[in-house]
Amino acid sequence: MSIRIYPIDQQVSGQFDEGRLVEQKPIGFPGEGSAVERVGTLFYWAWFQAKEDAYLPPHPHRGFEIISYLLEGHIQHQDTLGTQRSLKAGSLQVMQTGSGVQHSEKYEKGTSGFQIWFEPFLGEANYATPAYSDYLEQDFPVVQRDGCTIKSVVGGSSPVQLVADANMWDVTISAGQAFEMMVPEGYSIAGLVVEGSSTWCSFTETRSAGPREFVVCEGDAPGLLRVEADVGGDTRLILIQVPSELPYPSYKEVKIRLKVEKER
């Protein structure tokens, strides 16, 4: 299993509302220049932070499954499905944008979290009925194991089940302890270090990763991934498991096909 570390200068940044809302993007949109353009069904990943109260006016989405997972603060969500919801730290919202939806967000100063896009087969998803759902902190199963706290956020035992093949965990590793997981054949792990320093180990490689660094672990055979927290403090990670290769035509391919159909 290969382990690649991407520091902040190999990611990209963005901002909204005149800089009130800023983003660090381990995976940016096509053409933005991030070193990692996608990992399987994982299409986009942004870590947002509200420097001041911020507002994103209504804007459209189509096809993609978009989750927002809050680390801190408060968001008010509104969309063209008639949804008006308020989310706090530990909560997650899911937009399965289907044939199209518009939404807006208000961010309280100090809010931070992740907006992550997963790509289902857009040849079908683009025609599906859009849907919204959200989940509170207490809705997610949490397991304590060998000095680790493991929260299932997407897939597996989580109440959040997507069409796109994806699993996501929020993992805290106590200082000096280690988290281990088997990575199935044909799958990769994309990980973001929220806080702390850690050592990532596979059978063939060992790499170190610090706060805000992005890690991609990929192998062509089943393998054990071990992440060790440094003795100086706890480490918190967001881990996402997705197929290493997209198992159907990509966004770009579907976009070209839709353009051709429209011009007929």
From TrEMBL:
It comes from Brevibacillus nitrificans. This is Pirin. PANTHER family: PIRIN, PIRIN-RELATED. It comes from the Bacteria. Residues 54-117 form the Pirin N-terminal domain. Belongs to the pirin family. It holds the Pfam family Pirin.
